[in-house]
Amino acid sequence: MRAKSAALLVLSLAAAGCARLDMQDQPKYRPQRPSDFFADGRSERQPVEGTIARGALNEDTEFYTGKDASGKDIDAFPVAVDKAFVERGQQRYDIYCAPCHGRIGNGLGMIVRRGFKQPPSYHIDRLRTAPVGHLYDVVSNGYGAMQDYAMQLQPRDRWAIVAYIRALQYSENANVNDLSADARTKIGQATTAELRDALAHEPLAPPDTDFTNFPAVPATPSGVPGVNGAGAAPSNQPERK
Ligand code: HEC
């Protein structure tokens, strides 16, 4: 009797051993799992030496690094710059750079006013005359206390931002003689009504007078769904991060 049940057990184990292979049990390796099949113990093969991922052949050194073959910062844009390109740069600048450098590049962005290290104004002589390759390099690799923006910004957008910084610099240093004769005669002729109209279309941001007495511990405003969930009683506890 005992021998019989042992034999039954062996039989049922054997049957489990050659069970069919279901799709959820695939004989595959998950990424980065070890393997004893290959001599190096990795399940993944290394790409053949010299392999370049599709779209990653960064042949144009000036475009990708902002430097020429001798490693010097270039001073001419390696891309065509037109109005649309500068406007793209303005849009990216306002997102990624203005929080510290300010909308006009004076280095007084909101993060700086809240205590971050103040960057130099773009309108100082050193940065006005800095080659475009230097500005591109700062975005790509960071500079001192500033982190790099290589992850957030593709090379083309970095150049667009550099083009916009040049426009900002020009806006603070333009010479009346750069205007056409026709445009020059119009200066001083703008009526108050025209100025008011221009302001109505693009109003100036109101001066921020409250940043000096910003509370050290921001309170969760009542009625705002916060840590306590929507509709919870207003809490005077600081919001948890
Ligand atoms: C979090 C704040 C912050 C942001 C955002 C930021 N910067 Fe900066 N930036 C700084 C600070 C601070 C410095 C000064 C660093 C130092 O000297 O240690 C600086 C310096 C610079 C300089 C001057 C380098 C030099 O030669 O002196 C340039 C140019 C510059 N940033 C461009 C940019 C651009 C373009 C962006 C957006 C893609 C950007 N920064 C985003 C904080 C920031």
General description of the model:
With 241 residues, this protein is mainly alpha-helical. It has a domain at 82-172: Cytochrome c-like domain (Cytochrome Bc1 Complex, Chain D, domain 2, Orthogonal Bundle). Helices cover 37% and strands 0% of the residues. It is built from ten helices and no strands. It has helices at 2-17, 61-65, 83-96, 98-101, 110-113, 125-128, 132-141, 155-171, 181-186, 192-201. Helix 7 (132-141) packs across helix 8. Bound molecules: heme C. Heme C binds next to helix 4 and helix 7.
Write the layout of secondary structure elements.
Layout (H helix, E strand, L loop, with lengths): L1 H16 L43 H5 L17 H14 L1 H4 L8 H4 L11 H4 L3 H10 L13 H17 L9 H6 L5 H10 L40
Helix pairs in contact: 3-8, 7-8
Short key terms for the protein model shown above:
241 residues; mainly alpha; Cytochrome Bc1 Complex, Chain D, domain 2; 10 helices; binds heme C
